[in-house]
């Protein structure tokens, strides 16, 4: 379980509380996954409120935690109001921090209506605090990400031995998803991308009924989930023999991937890493065909902080034990595309590449 005392400590005074309602952040701070629940932090106490579907399990899972588990005995707002009101009155709460990045307008209006005497603080302070902490992984989190990655790699290896021309993109995606589940994944990390031929020039193509054909690139972007934690990788294959132009593009993307991995270090910004990959692609003459950011953080969500992008907002730099993707790509409209994606663990002296599948072009 994550030590969530950093939220209690972030409160300005004893009359302020913090409300965590988003499923991902709730899972992060409690270690307990559920479709419904509310976490309340005061300066001195932490509470987990949930309904009868999860109450008994929460009591067991959180028995040795700092959280007091409270049952909301019905699913309407009256039960929620009674329990939160008790906490707010007992702790003399006057203002409440909310997750501005995830709470909906209707959700905020509901809380304002239930508690008109409370000032619900709509700054990004709470969201920023949790997301910044989530970006740096614990050893247990890293282990789960690695487990998900090993499953994805074994599934991919099994897939490549089965691929043949005539199979459709949809069939390939379905087979890969099945293999990941069979090997122990809880789910696919996201909708698996399989894009062949001209479709591979679309960075986030959706699998279609198009069959794989000789002389085509096939871009496969996929990942697995283990205990809530995601993996993410992309490999580009070729059916038969590539042209010299295809080989050159592949080598350029491989070089950009390699150079960016070498540049990873503590305190480097995502913008600078993105520029490293773009400079390499520019030297090959393909920078204008790189249409997305270099990468992103991976954890309880497949896309989370930090952002490795020239357009990244803020000044979040890489820290030890962040897990990020490095995924440069070249996409030539109407012809083909190539993407190579690895996950890297930031270390004191550089990084460890968590993706063990070779990057040499795979011929089918």
Describe the structure.
With 364 residues, the chain is of the alpha+beta class. The protein has helices spanning 5-10, 23-30, 55-61, 77-90, 105-114, 125-135, 139-160, 169-182, 244-263, 270-284; strands at residues 16-20, 38-41, 46-50, 67-71, 95-97, 119-121, 187-188, 193-196, 217-222, 224-226, 229-230, 233-238, 295-297, 304-308, 323-326, 329-332, 336-339, 342-347, 350-353, 362-363. The strands form six sheets. It has a six-stranded mixed beta sheet, sandwiched between helices. A four-stranded mixed beta sheet has the order 8-9-12-20, with helices on one face. A three-stranded antiparallel beta sheet has the order 7-10-11. α3 (55-61) links the parallel β3 (46-50) and β4 (67-71). The longest helix has 22 residues, at 139-160.
Topology:
Blueprint: H1 5-10, E1 16-20, H2 23-30, E2 38-41, E3 46-50, H3 55-61, E4 67-71, H4 77-90, E5 95-97, H5 105-114, E6 119-121, H6 125-135, H7 139-160, H8 169-182, E7 187-188, E8 193-196, E9 217-222, E10 224-226, E11 229-230, E12 233-238, H9 244-263, H10 270-284, E13 295-297, E14 304-308, E15 323-326, E16 329-332, E17 336-339, E18 342-347, E19 350-353, E20 362-363
Parallel strand pairs: 1-5, 3-4, 5-6, 12-20
Antiparallel strand pairs: 1-2, 2-3, 7-10, 8-9, 9-12, 10-11, 13-14, 15-18, 16-17, 18-19
């Amino acid at each position: 379980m994550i030590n969530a005392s950093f939220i209690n400590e972030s409160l300005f005074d004893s009359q302020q509380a913090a409300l965590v309602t988003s499923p991902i952040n709730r899972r992060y701070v409690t270690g307990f996954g559920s479709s419904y629940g509310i976490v309340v932090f005061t300066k001195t106490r932490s509470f987990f409120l949930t309904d009868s579907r999860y109450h008994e399990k929460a009591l067991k899972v959180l028995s040795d935690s700092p959280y007091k588990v409270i049952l909301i005995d019905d699913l309407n707002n009256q039960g929620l109001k009674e329990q939160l009101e008790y906490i707010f009155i007992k702790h003399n709460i006057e203002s409440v921090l909310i997750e501005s990045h995830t709470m909906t307008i209707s959700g905020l209006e509901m809380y304002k209506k239930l508690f008109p005497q409370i000032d619900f603080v709509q700054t990004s302070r709470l969201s920023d605090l949790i997301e910044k902490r989530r970006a740096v992984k614990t050893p247990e989190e890293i282990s789960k990400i690695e487990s998900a990655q090993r499953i994805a790699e074994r599934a991919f290896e099994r897939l490549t031995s089965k691929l043949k021309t005539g199979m459709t993109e949809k069939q390939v995606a379905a087979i890969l998803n099945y293999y990941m589940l069979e090997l122990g994944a809880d789910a696919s990390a996201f909708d698996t991308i399989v894009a062949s031929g001209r479709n591979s020039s679309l960075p986030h193509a959706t699998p279609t009924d198009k069959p794989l054909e000789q002389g085509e690139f096939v871009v496969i972007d996929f990942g697995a989930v283990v205990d809530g934690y995601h993996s993410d990788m992309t490999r580009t294959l070729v059916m038969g023999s590539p042209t010299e132009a295809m080989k050159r593009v592949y080598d350029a993307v491989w070089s950009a991937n390699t150079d960016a991995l070498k540049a990873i270090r503590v305190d480097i910004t995502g913008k600078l890493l993105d520029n490293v990959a773009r400079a390499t692609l520019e030297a090959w003459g393909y920078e204008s065909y790189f249409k997305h950011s270099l990468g992103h953080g991976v954890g309880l969500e497949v896309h989370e902080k930090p952002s490795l992008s020239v357009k990244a907002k803020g000044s979040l730099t890489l820290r030890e034990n962040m897990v990020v993707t490095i995924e440069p790509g070249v996409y030539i409209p109407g012809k083909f595309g190539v993407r190579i994606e690895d996950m890297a663990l930031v270390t004191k002296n550089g990084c460890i590449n968590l993706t063990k599948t070779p990057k040499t072009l795979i011929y089918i």
